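About this split. The held-out portion is used to measure sequence recovery: a designer receives only the structure tokens and must propose an amino acid at every position. Recovery is the fraction of positions where the proposal matches the reference. Here is one held-out target exactly as it appears in the evaluation file.
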């Protein structure tokens, strides 16, 4: 098969990356996608770097069996732990993600920007570099246990609202200028978070990541020539229930909050 007609691989520790896939299908409707959710090994965000690298490499090997032309790491944690190493090892485009601190910095004046991400992302070197450049006014909030709400399909439960209440209590009297959703799972919790942060811009990196994917494929002349809609294949190490949830989320629109 001509290289440009191969599918694009994408993966995450679970359902979070489906929010990236949704954006990718929207921007690149003619491409075929193979998405792998590593649900059996989730969460990545509370594991150490070496373990996440090991898991990410395993998933890349699985995706390679489908002869993908590029891989999107639809996970901030796995990007932080593994992208550089994987790019050294493999000779095809690997697109990663990072918390949207750069776009958030445009909102910063005299208040604070809250950055929500996994402990793994916030503890990583990549994040420390990002903070050096765009960290003014940023308060980093590691959120262990938060991705699990999205994994359970629990996007609006009393327990989730209690989590946000606890997390945000110390900042109730601060001027919050923006909040960064630095984990792809949190995109599915955006509507719930918006109720705790009314009229605060909630920023994720999905659109920018897919734009980079497009630009990279275009530069390599590897965008498909097909004109009909592409196919999406969902795979998971977590079995049928996990695939069913991924499928449901792929077809659910999240409201656009500012
Ligand atoms: N979705 C992943 C991210 O973007 C992490 C979730 C996890 O496995 O902890 O960071």
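Reference sequence for scoring:
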């Amino acid at each position: 098969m001509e290289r440009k007609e191969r599918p694009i691989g994408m993966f995450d520790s679970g359902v979070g990356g489906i929010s990236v896939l949704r954006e990718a299908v929207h921007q690149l409707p003619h491409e075929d996608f193979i998405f792998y959710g590593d649900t059996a090994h989730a969460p990545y965000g509370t594991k150490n770097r070496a373990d996440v690298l090991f898991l990410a490499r395993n998933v890349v090997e699985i995706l390679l069996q489908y002869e993908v032309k590029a891989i999107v790491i639809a996970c901030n944690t796995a990007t932080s732990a593994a992208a550089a190493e994987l790019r050294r090892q493999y000779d095809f485009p690997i697109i990663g993600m990072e918390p949207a601190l750069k776009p958030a910095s445009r909102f910063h004046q005299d208040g604070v920007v809250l950055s929500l991400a996994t402990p793994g992302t916030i503890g990583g070197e990549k994040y420390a570099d990002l903070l050096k450049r765009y960290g003014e006014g940023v308060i980093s909030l590691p959120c262990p246990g938060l991705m699990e709400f999205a994994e359970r399909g629990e996007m609006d439960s009393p327990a989730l609202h209690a989590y946000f209440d606890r997390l945000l209590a110390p900042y109730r009297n601060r001027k919050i200028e923006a909040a960064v959703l630095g984990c792809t799972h949190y995109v599915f919790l955006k509507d719930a978070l918006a109720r705790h942060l009314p009229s605060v811009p909630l920023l994720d990196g999905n659109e920018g990541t897919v734009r980079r994917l497009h630009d990279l494929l275009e530069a390599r002349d590897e965008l498909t020539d097909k004109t009909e809609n592409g196919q999406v294949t969902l795979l998971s190490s977590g079995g049928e229930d996990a695939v069913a949830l991924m499928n449901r989320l792929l077809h659910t629109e999240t409201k656009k909050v500012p």
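Annotator remark: The chain has two domains: 3-97+206-250, 101-203.
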